[in-house]
Each structure stands twice: as C-alpha cells, then as structure tokens.
Amino acid sequence: SPAAGQIKFENVTFGFPGAEKPVIADASFVAEPGKTTAIIGSTGAGKTVLLNLMLRLYDPQEGSITIDGAPVDALTRAQLARTVSLVPQRPYLFGGTIASNLRFGRTDANDAELWEALRVAQGEDFVREKELGLEEPVSQGGTNVSGGQRQRLSIARALVAKPLVYLFDDSFSALDVATDARLRAALPDATEGATTIIVAQRVSTITEADQILVMEGGEIVGRGTHDELLATNEVYQEIVRS
Ligand code: DCP
Ligand code: MG
Hints:
By secondary structure, this protein is α/β, with parallel strands linked by helices. The chain has one domain: Rossmann fold. The protein has 9 helices and 12 strands. The chain has helices at 47-54, 77-83, 98-102, 111-120, 124-129, 147-161, 177-190, 226-232, 234-241, and strands at 7-14, 24-31, 36-41, 62-67, 70-71, 84-87, 96-97, 137-138, 165-169, 195-199, 211-216, 219-224. Strands 6-9-10-3-11-12 form a 6-stranded mixed beta sheet, with helices on both faces. A 4-stranded antiparallel beta sheet has the order 2-1-4-5, covered by helices on one side. Strand 4 and strand 5 (70-71) form a beta hairpin. Helix 4 packs across helix 6 (147-161) and helix 8 (226-232) crosses helix 9. The relative contact order is 0.19. The protein binds 2'-deoxycytidine-5'-triphosphate (DCP) and magnesium ion. Magnesium ion binds next to helix 1.
C-alpha cells in the first residue's frame, strides 16, 4: 500500500539514562492520515519527548513506534526527515535568507510555494514588508527576527516540505488568539491528507481535533474528542477550567 503516514505507538516506555522514573510510560495511540491528533497536558507531562521519539531523537526502552507499519528505527534519519516535519517548541533559523530557511526541508520549492506557505502560516505580511522580501538575510539563530516571526517561518518551513506527518510542538500558543484562529482555519487545506499532531496549551486550539490525548506525568490519561473528554475526564476538565 502507498505510504500514508499512519503513526502507531504501542506500549512505549522511555526514560532518560540514569533517571529513576520514565518520562513516557506505556504510551499507546494511533494517529491516522487525514486526521488531527492533539496532545494537551501540563508542563513536564512529556509532550515534547513524545514528539521527539517519533523523529528518533531518542529511542524507547520498551514498545514500538511504527509509520505505516514500518518500525521507525528501520528508517534512516534522512528517510524520517522526508516523512515527518517537526515544528519545534523553540524554532531555529539558520544563517542565510528567509527563502533558504523555508527551503530547508525541500530545496526545489519555487517562490510561489514559499509565499503560499507563508500565507497559511500568517507570515506573508511581515516578509512582504522586508526590503528584500524572501531574500532578506537571516542571521544564525534568527536573532534579527522576532520570536513570533520565527515561529511563523518555522511553520511555513514545515508546510513547504509537504511531509506525510506534521508535528507542531506548541506552535500556536505564542500567537494571539485571532492569528491562531486564522492559521488553524487555513491549515486543513494546506495539510490535507497528512497526519497532523498538534501539542497545544490552549483548549481553543484543539476543540476541532479528531482525537485529543491528555498527558500527565508521562502517561496518556485520557483520549477522545473535546466533548467526550469534557464529559468524562477530570484532568481535561481541570485544563479547561484553568
Ligand atoms: N526531560 C529531561 N531531559 C530532557 C528533556 C526532558 O529530563 N532533555 C524531562 C523533563 C520533564 C519530562 O522529561 O520532566 C518531560 O519533558 P517534556 O519536555 O516532554 O515536557 P512537555 O513538553 O510536556 O512540557 P512543556 O509543556 O513545558 O513543553
Ligand atoms: Mg514541550
């Protein structure tokens, strides 16, 4: 069957070397192509580590992680990078230009594709305001770009890459509510057919998700839609109230 981007965790346990408690404990879930899976939970719950496990930044001590049935540890990191795009919690820009940063995941993207990704990522206006537009220089680490702009460029970079799987690690909580809403309204078309996993802080970011995983202390303590969790899950109810 053609590659589709289904992600499957089965009983995944991971702890950092020397730590007594695992950071991810017995996590199982499936993220389906064409669907949005959201992950929510308090700071330190293990959300970032869970995403990083999919990219093999670490490998679990127990359990398995597969993409379309193939164990991720059978893929090279280059194959993984072509399949999965991560927008990290602290996005990083490389020394170069806005264009070279956006083409990081797919060097043959043309300018029209870069502008389209910027439009979706709500970064079009600020790039248009730059004297050199797409060719505006960016310093190593992106120190001449604001934090919010860095976030939007990082989202646009993932969109340019057109992967099978998108991982957004807390990519929307730094945006104001209106920008967050515009971005999420534009995202489904731009990521159509892909597997989308969104780590979020704001419940409003994920109410439409097909599936929400609630994490606490390294465990998945709830799963369902917003309405299902609101009716049944105490941890989720607490997050909604806070
Ligand atoms: N941890 C660690 N060493 C690392 C990274 C994380 O010991 N290099 C620990 C810190 C936390 C746990 O792992 O106890 C989970 O960390 P995460 O970064 O996955 O936590 P979250 O992403 O859920 O938190 P936040 O919402 O603050 O981003
Ligand atoms: Mg995190």
